[in-house]
Amino acid sequence: MATPVISFRKTLFPNKVVTPASQSFSFNRRSFVLGGAQVAVGGLLVGRLGWIAIAENEKYQLLSDSNRINLTITPPRRGWIVDRSGRPLASNRTNFRVDIIPDRLQNREKAIPALGELLQLTPNDIDRINEHLDKAAGYQPVQVADDLTYEQYAALSVRLPEFPGVVPSQGFARYYPAGPSVGHLIGYVGTPSAEEYKASRDPLLITPGFKLGKQGLEKSLDSLLTGKPGARRVEVTARGAVVRDLETRPDTPGRSVKLTIDAGLQEYAGRRLGTQSGAVVVMDCLTGDILCSTSMPSFDPNSFSEGISHLEWQMLSQDDHVPLRNKTLAGLYPPGSTVKPMIALSFLEAGLPPEETVNCTGALRVGNRLFHCHSRRGHGAVNMHRAIEQSCNIYFYYFAQKIGMDAIAIMARRLGLGQRFDLPFPNQSYGTVPDPAWKMKKYGEPWQTYDTVNATIGQGYMLVNPTQMCVMAARLATGRDLDPHFIVDGKRHEGAPLGISLDHLTVIRNAMKDVVNGGGTGRAARLDVPGVMLAAKTGTAQVGAISTRGMRAADQPFRLRDHALFQGFAPHDNPRYAIATIIEHGGHMDRNQDAPMVSGDCITYLYDPAKAMEKLQRLEETWGGTPQQRLERQLNEFRVARGLASAPLVAEPGNASEGSVPETEEPTERQAAGDASTPNDVADGSQSTDAGDARTAENSTTPEAN
């Protein structure tokens, strides 16, 4: 009998009995599930749309606006830097400028020459643009030209489609009326570097036309001088064409800063130094205000602010007159005989009577060395007054051994040598006031008698900067602890008494008066100002090897020539101004450009500017013009020497002292005029004689000044 075959299908899925009721139930169940799914999806869509429309409305509104609205940051105008009377030392002038955004630049090889022809750029400008494009980050704007005429600006604007990546704009450029004369004092501004942008990611740093302080007061006061940027919102088409302006927010200019500097004197001193390498510092003896801090040769801060070319930088960095160093604060020099009044004051404070004499025969043996006076025949019997007036070395050699170096070093520090002043300049050199403890710590060697002898004539280990030397002159003049100040803060910094006997100071001041007005070594500094006498001390600092000391200065290499120094104050009987001047490696070669006469003319300017300027203009005719003109000529010669085309000379900007500056904006805060300079009603005349401080002992130890 056959076994029945089991149907697995029927077993697993038996036949259902379909009835109208079961069909209705199945349909309703499916409809419910499907309807629920539709409601859920619809709810999600509605919720998402609501979230986008309500919660994220601002986000998408901004994204929408970004497609049709262009936001441009406007660089803020920098605050002015003005002198004590409100005259500009650094200002802003309205200008048209052109920048390149490297990322957007196309066909650079054709675009740069075409721009050069259209904008009449010089070979120096072309070199600078190419160099900066090579170094710039893609988003970092590179300046093409500044201070364009409206015709040049308009000519480029109508041809912009031919120059992708070229951005013309109207704004403000930094301008320095006195040019090189304020280079080291004010510094300059420049385009922020890629490193500065990466450190802060501030979009202002990559905005065309924005400049940061790079050196000098522009750098140290940058946070005060930099204002807040403005902005401009415009509606644009899909291709970027402007439809209409929507909103403009003006920039907030930076604060103006008022300095103690006298702009006219600052420029005059820079020009009066002529072709020499040197520095002049002038200080107000009543307040400690610095009226002049000039280091020459210098650079033109206008050139740096526009973006200096590699060629010009190379010329400046290779110049043996070191135009990139601020000699007033960073230059260190042996002070030479300018410290003899300070040395004599230490003798008086130690109990030495000013009448006591020593016989100067022209040389003095110290141990196994012979130290000479500058007068090889000797000065005979010399007391303190005559020793200062005639700059007799033997007097100071002899009594310094009796008094000792510790007393001298204490007085030097009381008068400001080796002192660190709180000044708004990051790069300062503070020099050295040596004593036995210093030498043991520095070299691990005991102090020797010849170290004292060298120090008494400002040689050996002793080093000062010109600002310290000016402070020394001011403290000798007043007997007060005056400190230098550069920024007007509404306070009078008169200084506390130094505690030095007035009788002792009078002895020193009278001797310094006769250095200039008697038969002393500084007669070339004599003032041709009725009723005003200059009290001072000259100095010569040796820097060359002993083997060169028998040679004429003109036959020596520049860096081996002696420094010429001068410090003093005027009027001698009621001191108002203190001055320090150094002619670096001057070698007393040119009487008109030597430290005494330069100093005398700078003090004369404070009393009779017209007379001082008349003399300066005559001298500049023999020097080849003003510092700006000589700098342009030097750069052209440098170009030609390297086989490059000569650039046309441009007109020199007006002089600050003459008040001729281009059209500028007004400063944000008008400054009240400072103290009146000095009287101008002085008779005309001329009077001066020569004589510089002669060189010191042939066997004295002298380190290199630089």
Descriptive overview:
Helix 14 (340-349) packs parallel to helix 16 (393-403). Residues 652-663 and 668-706 have low confidence and may be disordered. The protein is an alpha+beta fold and 706 residues long. The longest helix has 36 residues, at 20-55. 44% of the residues are buried. A hairpin with a 5-residue loop joins strand 2 and strand 3. Strands 2, 3, 4, 5 and 10 form a 5-stranded mixed β-sheet that branches. It has a 5-stranded antiparallel β-sheet with strand order 12-11-19-18-17, sandwiched between helices. The chain contains 24 helices and 19 strands.
Write the layout of secondary structure elements.
Blueprint: H1 8-12, H2 20-55, H3 57-68, E1 69-74, E2 81-82, E3 88-100, H4 108-119, H5 123-135, E4 142-148, H6 150-157, E5 166-175, H7 183-186, E6 188-190, H8 194-200, E7 212-215, H9 216-220, H10 222-225, E8 230-236, E9 242-249, E10 257-258, H11 263-272, E11 277-284, E12 290-296, H12 301-306, H13 310-318, H14 340-349, E13 358-360, E14 363-366, E15 369-372, E16 380-382, H15 384-390, H16 393-403, H17 405-414, H18 436-443, H19 449-456, H20 466-478, H21 502-517, E17 535-541, E18 563-570, E19 577-584, H22 595-607, H23 609-623, H24 627-641
Parallel strand pairs: 2-10
Antiparallel strand pairs: 1-8, 2-3, 3-4, 3-5, 6-7, 8-9, 11-12, 11-19, 13-16, 14-15, 17-18, 18-19
Helix pairs in contact: 11-22, 14-16, 14-17, 14-21, 15-21, 16-19, 22-23
